[in-house]
Specification:
The protein has nine helices and no strands. It has 202 residues and is mainly α. α4 packs antiparallel against α5 and α5 runs parallel beside α7. The longest helix has 28 residues. The protein is elongated, with a radius of gyration of 19 Å. The model has no long low-confidence stretch (mean pLDDT 86).
């Protein structure tokens, strides 16, 4: 077996993303827990030994997916939260960006839903990042409530409800389908933020 690189190069990062995209197709085809490293290697037309050069096992691949996804979500979430814009608009952008990240930016994000499958030594940092991301959503929702544009709800419960809805898109979204992830993200944003919007008295 080849020795694994100590430092990630641009080429190795690109190859890891390619592996993650192939893993996404395999996870959808066989289910996350039934899919094996040999299945992923076959999807890439790669010798399984070469796959182990990048990931020691499927648990490490899952951890990589979690880390990459949360890094992208956190970066985008912080940018959106800092905008000089109404809170309901920020929330729309958070929802739309989340759908795009999971279904286009980080292919393979079906694994994003499986934090329990990540090894203990990497799970704590992933949970820390996840919690930081959820706090961004709660803060934006509180801003909307304070501004009177969003109805008075428990920000934590609302955040869990919204994230549950957008996370589930990885179960059914098909790349190359009739609607892009960006289109679906905008539709979700309209429906979900519309459900939280304060209604004007008639």
């Amino acid at each position: 077996m080849q020795k694994r690189p100590r430092r990630a190069t641009a080429r190795s990062k690109a190859q890891k993303r390619r592996i993650l995209e192939a893993a996404s197709a395999v996870f959808r085809r066989y289910g996350l827990h039934r899919a094996g490293m040999r299945d992923i290697a076959a999807e890439l037309d790669m010798h399984v030994g070469n796959l182990y050069y990048y990931f020691e096992n499927k648990a490490e691949l899952l951890a990589y997916c979690q880390e990459e996804t949360l890094a992208d979500l956190l970066s985008t979430g912080r940018q959106i939260a800092s905008l000089d814009a109404p809170a309901d608009e920020k929330l729309r952008r958070l929802i739309a960006a989340h759908v795009v990240s999971l279904n286009e930016t980080i292919r393979g994000s079906l694994a994003h839903l499986e934090i329990e499958a990540v090894a203990d030594d990497r799970r704590a940092e992933i949970v820390r990042r996840r919690d930081a991301y959820e706090r961004i959503w709660r803060r934006v929702i509180r801003e909307g409530i304070a501004a009177g544009t969003l109805t008075k709800v428990d920000p934590k419960v609302a955040t869990m409800s919204l994230l549950g809805s957008v996370n589930w898109t990885v179960k059914w979204f098909q790349a190359g389908g009739r609607r892009s992830a960006a289109h679906i993200g905008r539709e979700f944003a309209d429906m979900l933020v519309g459900g939280l919007a304060v209604r004007e008295a008639s």
